[in-house]
Amino acid sequence: MRVGILGAGVGRRLNDVQLPPKVLLRFGGKTLLERHVEILRGQGIERIDLVVGFRAEEVAAEIARIGAGDLVHTQFNPHFEEGAIISYATLKDAFTAGETAVFMDGDVLYDSRMMARLLASPQANCFLMDRQTEEGDDPVKLCLRDEVLVDFHKRPERRYDWWGEWVGFARFSPEIAAATIAEAERLIAAGHRGVIYEDAIRNILLDAPPGSFGVEDITGLPWVEIDFPEDLERARQEVFPDLEAAARTSAVTARARRA
């Protein structure tokens, strides 16, 4: 299994030029990258391909600091200031290796149980979804009709019954992973360098037979994707304390079981 993480962006929407690359944001003394590594190691992952660009040397230094050079392999995107679809296409080697592929946005602070649920899913092509959603154009929407996933976009076009927010994590079969890369490359070659990378995934989803993609519901578990200043504040004031409380509860439960 290969894991691909996007971590190349500048993070302009945070409106703070003093901030590091988002994978280096710290919570409780640990960077997001360190947290990703700990969670993925705990799930038995043996290789992570991390797309870097903005201040890539700082990310490399963090990989060395946390002793993850055996696990994390950086893929440099020299066009990191352009559309994120170019960063997605940079995962080509990882997603065309003939293995199951896990995709992650690198700017998510999340509960480790979410990753466990994704990796354990019986669905070959699966998105993590939260039903506690906020209206608006920014959330990427997983749209279902008759409990079948029918659309996937910020502005869906297909008719649906209800939708949940995509967390930014997915798992693809080897064939679908490779197809999404090919579609990303096609869009880039056609001059669509500024489109969101979800367009490439959506096009493959819409062309696939109904039921080829599914969702795992993680509603109730703490997480936040850090795009805007208010997301960073929520990460610090709400999500991280919830993660700490969950960790304490888990530790108490583990001790009780050993007693």
Major sheet, described briefly? 9 strands, mixed
Helix content: 25-40%
pLDDT under 50 segments (min length 5)?
none
Number of helices: 8
CATH homology superfamily: Spore Coat Polysaccharide Biosynthesis Protein SpsA, Chain A
Q: Judging by the overall fold, what is the CATH architecture? A: Alpha-Beta Complex
What is Rg?
Answer: 18 Å
- Strand element count: 13
Q: Assign an overall shape.
A: globular
Quick check: average pLDDT? 95
Strand fraction: 15-25%
Could you please describe the fold and organization of this structure?
Helix 6 packs across helix 7. By secondary structure, the protein is of the alpha/beta class. The protein has a single domain (2-258), classed as Spore Coat Polysaccharide Biosynthesis Protein SpsA, Chain A. 37% of the residues lie in helices and 24% in strands. The chain contains eight helices and 13 strands.
Which features characterize this protein?
single chain; 259 residues; alpha/beta; Spore Coat Polysaccharide Biosynthesis Protein SpsA, Chain A; nine-stranded mixed β-sheet; two-stranded antiparallel sheet; 37% helix; globular
